[in-house]
Task: inverse folding
């Protein structure tokens, strides 16, 4: 079956949600949502486990976009536009090689985007052409067979479409909450495309560990402090961040779509209602997470999935 024939009409509720979000946006450009000083002052840094091993982090750029800054971070008009990207992150640990956010497949415009409702599809589509995941891996001398598992920060289409280029036996690690959100509803939530996920084996990640930094729950993936998954629920119910202990001693938090750009953390700003209201599952929780990111100690480098400049310094050039 050609998936580009599965082209959902924009349903009335989706159109109504788009119109409501659009109408709410101009006011927020002038009067952005204010930070909650009580939330901010109540946050405590719980510390983090020492990294007894270290990983190698490589950003694999796959797609580009440009968006008005005021849409990414309410009330920000300088710069007028931000460089956004769609990036997969390769993590090489002594015990496993895996991908955080396997972002795009080469034919994403034909095979995945048609599964989204029309108004959203037009807004979120990356520039053409995109780099497929197999090609992005090839640029660092790896093949799709070299990947042990995928660890999406959440299950929106632009964080899992690269799965379509990975062997079918490569499992996906995600929280059961996120898996249920993406796949158990009668109709996929906005931002979710089912085809990259259907038939994939889920390896459930439970956030059963203690508070880490400013986050309430965690899971130490290898038990050595080098890869710690933290709770960023809000953008989606099971969104996570991946805290890495990188070679050389740097600490990086891959933050998925908890924020789209570091500007949101610096200025403590919410995404504008359009399209934030459409893609954030719980706006209140999502904004609380921005506060948690803002309260992080300065040595933790936040890398949002779509912040092209934040990812750029992790791009590895072929030697
Ligand atoms: Zn995204």
Result:
């Amino acid at each position: 079956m050609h998936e580009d024939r599965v082209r959902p009409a924009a349903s009335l509720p989706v159109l109504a949600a788009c119109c409501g979000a659009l109408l709410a946006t101009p006011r927020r450009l002038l009067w952005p949502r204010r930070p909650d000083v009580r939330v901010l002052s109540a946050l405590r840094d719980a510390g983090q486990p020492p990294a007894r091993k270290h990983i190698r982090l490589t950003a694999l750029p796959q797609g580009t976009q440009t968006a008005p800054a005021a849409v990414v971070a309410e009330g920000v008009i300088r710069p007028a536009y931000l460089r956004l990207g769609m990036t997969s992150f390769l993590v090489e640990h002594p015990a496993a090689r895996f991908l955080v956010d396997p972002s795009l497949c080469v034919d994403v415009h034909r095979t995945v985007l048609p599964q989204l409702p029309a108004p959203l599809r037009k807004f979120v589509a990356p520039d053409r052409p995109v780099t497929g995941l197999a090609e992005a891996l090839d640029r660092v001398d790896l093949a799709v067979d070299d990947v042990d598992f995928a660890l999406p920060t959440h299950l929106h289409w632009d964080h899992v479409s690269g799965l379509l280029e990975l062997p079918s036996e490569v499992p996906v690690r995600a929280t059961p909450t996120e898996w249920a959100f993406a796949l158990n509803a009668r109709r996929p939530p906005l931002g979710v495309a089912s085809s990259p996920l259907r038939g994939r084996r889920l390896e459930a990640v439970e956030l059963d560990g203690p508070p880490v930094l400013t986050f309430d729950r965690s899971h130490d993936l290898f038990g050595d402090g080098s890869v710690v998954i933290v709770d960023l629920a809000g953008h989606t119910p099971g969104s996570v961040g991946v805290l890495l202990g990188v070679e050389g001693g740097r600490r990086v938090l891959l933050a998925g779509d908890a924020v789209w750009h570091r500007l949101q953390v610096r200025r403590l700003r919410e995404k504008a209602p359009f399209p934030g209201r459409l893609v954030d599952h719980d706006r209140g929780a999502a904004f609380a997470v921005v506060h948690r990111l803002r309260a992080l100690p300065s040595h933790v480098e936040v890398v949002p999935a779509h912040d092209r400049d934040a990812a750029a310094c992790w791009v590895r050039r072929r030697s």
The radius of gyration is 18 Å. Confidence is low (pLDDT under 50) at residues 1-7. The chain has eleven helices and eleven strands. Residues 3-312 form a domain with the Metallo-beta-lactamase; Chain A fold (CATH 3.60.15.10).
